[in-house]
Amino acid sequence: MKNLILVTSVVLLSTISLAAQQYITKNGRISFYSDGPLEKIEAHNSQVNSALNTETGAIVFKVLMKSFIFEKALMQEHFNENYVESDKYPNSTLKGKVTNVNEIDFEKEGAHEATIEGDLTIHGITKKVKEKGTFTVSKNSIHGKSTFLVKLDDYDISIPGAVNGKIAEEIEITVDIKLKPYKN
After folding, report:
1. Rounded to the nearest 5 degrees, what angle is found at the Cα of 10, between the Cα atoms of 5 and 16?
2. Are the CB atoms for 112 and 136 separated by under 8 Å?
3. Buried b (16+ CB within 10 A) or exposed e, 89-105
4. Whole-number Å distance between alpha carbons of 127 and 149
5. pLDDT averaged over consecutive 10-residue blocks of the chain (184 residues)?
6. What DSSP string describes 122-163?
7. How far is the C-alpha of 128 from the C-alpha of 133, rounded, in Å?
8. The predicted structure's pLDDT at residue 17
9. Are the C-beta atoms of residues 184 and 18 closer than 8 Å to each other?
10. CA-to-CA distance for 129 and 143, rounded, in angstroms?
C-alpha cells in the first residue's frame, strides 16, 4: 500500500513542475450523495491524492474507487461490481487547471473563489468539466472545497432495470482537500 501511495504521488507530481509553489495531499476527501426515490446512497473516500501548482494553476486528483466506504456492505459491493466496475476501472482522475489562478493570492490568508476546468475521467470515460470551488489559504496549507453534480449517464454508468427510476440519475460530489507544501 505504501508503494502504491508513493508511485501515485510521483505520477501526480510529475505532471506539474516541482517548485516551491507545489502543494499536495495523500488523504483528501471526496464523498458522494444520491437522494433517489428508493434509497439515499452516500459514500466517503479519505484516500484521495491531489497536487496543486499555485503558480500555473495546474491541479490533479486521483481517486481509488474501491476506497469509497458505504454504510451498507451490499451497497459497496454493488457500487464496485455493478456500477463503476472497480476491477476494470480502478481509478477516477481529474487533470485540470485553476483558470482564475492569477486572481488568487496564495500568499494572503483567507477564502478565494476558484474556477477549475479540466478532464474528469470516471468509469473509463473522460469528459470536460468546469466547476466552482473555494481555496482557503492559511499559514501552512490550502484547503480546497467544491460541490458539484455528475450525471451517471455521462460516464456510461448504468442503473439496473430493477431499480431504474428509483435511484437518482445525478450524484452530488463533494471535494474537501487540505494541501500542504511539497518538500523535496
Report:
1. 135
2. yes
3. bebbbbbbbbeebeebe
4. 13
5. 48 46 97 85 96 97 97 91 94 98 96 98 98 96 97 88 72 97 86
6. ETTEEEEEEEEEEEEEETTEEEEEEEEEEEGGGGT-PPPGGG
7. 16
8. 44
9. yes
10. 21
Tell me if 125 sits within 8 A of 150, measured CB to CB: no
Phi, psi of 53 (to 5 degrees): -105, 110
C-alpha torsion angle, residues 176, 79, 123, 39 (rounded to 10) = -70
Distance of alpha carbon 141 from its chain centroid, rounded? Answer: 18
Taken in order of first residue, the domains within the chain and their CATH numbers are: 2-181 (2.40.128.110)
Grid coordinates belonging to 124? 473509463
Q: How far is CA 14 from CA 9, 53, 147, 167, in A?
A: 8, 11, 27, 39
C-alpha R_g of the chain: 17
pLDDT for 165 equals 65
Position 6 scores a pLDDT of 45
The SS3 call for residue 60 is strand
Write the single-letter amino acid at 67: S
pLDDT at 105: 95
Q: Could you tell me where the DSSP H helices lie in the chain?
A: 2-14, 73-78
